[in-house]
């Protein structure tokens, strides 16, 4: 098979969507215990021999970019900064070339603990930007959600990311009624002052079952109404239909510059119809959706001697079966069989 024939493979599903955005979980381990992600006591981490080796991760990155049309890669966890070889993996990913003969766009979703010590090296390796998970700027609320008193380290990480040029820094915050929703204005003010872009996420059923209910989820319309009490918002034109966040422009105020704020309304205004993401878990499973209850194993075929082309076809076949939507509103909705930290965002 020629190079051009190989490049004709793509991650298309039966609904006409094509995956160009790869999310790679590098570990299921995390140094926080956020309530919407995992139980406070943590989880049983994957044994080392069940997680992909560095060589296996690199091989799947190469297949995704050079054979299947991947153009963007986001590294996730757990907490990806805990992967000792992270910088080497990013450097390798940066050396790849897409069908347009350019490096893939590389980003990292992180809780930012220790980012202040690694931001410069990550940028030097080829990382383009970071998404930082931070659900409150109130130390007590942050500690309540994450079960760790580490908010100061997050601020240091955000500052270091900006200094290293890992911009725009995007701050991800899961809105939870009665937990952190009252502090969303303070979080937006901080993001604007820090030159970051806040993304408020509707709470999704991806953690312990008792942690989610529709009644405790703060919907997009309520988020915007609350923010509008203090900030002048205007809806921004939507230029990328596959982007999960809808953006609003924020006018400058007395105590903050202008900027943008996004809301990811995965529950009330799902964007499944334009989803362009494919996911690899830390143990080498392909997931076509965060909420999928079926996975396709690439790890064992790879270890059994499968060729690149065979792995590419397995991956493409898995994506062909992607469902039209996550089905949260369906009467027969079934919770994913893995927690968020085990899947990768």
Automatic annotation (TrEMBL):
S-adenosyl-L-methionine binds at residues 36, 78, 133, 204. Residues 14-244 form the Radical SAM core domain. SMART domains: Elp3 (SM00729). Binds 2 [4Fe-4S] clusters. Binds 1 [4Fe-4S] cluster coordinated with 3 cysteines and an exchangeable S-adenosyl-L-methionine and 1 [4Fe-4S] cluster coordinated with 3 cysteines and the GTP-derived substrate. [4Fe-4S] cluster 1 binds at residues 30, 34, 37. It is an enzyme of class 4 (lyase). Its cofactor is [4Fe-4S] cluster. GTP binds at residues 23, 74, 109, 170, 277-279. Its EC number is 4.1.99.22. It comes from the Bacteria. It catalyses: GTP + AH2 + S-adenosyl-L-methionine = (8S)-3',8-cyclo-7,8-dihydroguanosine 5'-triphosphate + 5'-deoxyadenosine + L-methionine + A + H(+). Keywords: 4Fe-4S, GTP-binding, Iron, Iron-sulfur, Lyase, Metal-binding, Molybdenum cofactor biosynthesis, Nucleotide-binding, S-adenosyl-L-methionine. It holds the Pfam family Mob_synth_C. [4Fe-4S] cluster 2 binds at residues 272, 275, 289. Pathway: Cofactor biosynthesis; molybdopterin biosynthesis. Transmembrane segments: none annotated. NCBIfam families: moaA. Belongs to the radical SAM superfamily. MoaA family. Monomer and homodimer. Catalyzes the cyclization of GTP to (8S)-3',8-cyclo-7,8-dihydroguanosine 5'-triphosphate. HAMAP family: MoaA_B. This is GTP 3',8-cyclase. It comes from Trueperella bonasi. The lineage of its organism: Bacteria, Bacillati, Actinomycetota, Actinomycetes, Actinomycetales.
